[in-house]
Specification:
globular, alpha+beta, 5 strands, 5-stranded mixed beta sheet
């Protein structure tokens, strides 16, 4: 188990706090760092669904969303809600 398998996201905003996060928007990307250190990126709807379906509570899952003035990065703090948001 690598030394970075436990993540602290206290300096990031939580995805659950976003008023309206367009999970399936074309400009939104998901990133996942799993407990083995492998980084996954999802840009298409099907990739996003697959990434969230395979993510565990021990993985670091981030949402990158271009805001009006700067890039917004959110930590996915509720995988169940994220999976529901991308359900097809």
């Amino acid at each position: 188990m690598p030394g970075f398998a436990s993540f602290t996201t206290s300096n990031l905003r939580n995805a659950s706090s976003a008023a309206r996060l367009p999970w399936l928007g074309r400009s939104v990307s998901l990133l996942c760092v799993d407990t083995t250190g492998v980084v996954h990126q999802a840009k298409t709807d099907s990739e996003k669904r697959a990434l969230l379906a395979s993510a565990t509570s021990r993985d670091l899952v981030l949402v990158a969303w271009p805001g009006q003035l700067s890039q917004e990065i959110y930590a996915v703090d509720d995988l169940r809600a994220a999976r529901a948001a991308v359900k097809g």
